[in-house]
Description:
- The chain is an all-alpha fold and 54 residues long.
- Helix content is 37%, strand content 0%.
- It contains 1 helix and no strands.
Amino acid sequence: MWKIAVGFVIFAGLAIFILSKGGNIDMGGEKHGVEAAPEPAVTAPAMAPASTSK
């Protein structure tokens, strides 16, 4: 039983270490409402009309 507790402590410490090295990680869950900034939409450039002359 004590081996499970020691394993959990080691695993939790490793997880916290990896998350702290990851940079800006938001563990707050889903954001709804005004405080959530929408991601900018990426639009493709308009295509030039094809030439109809032969």
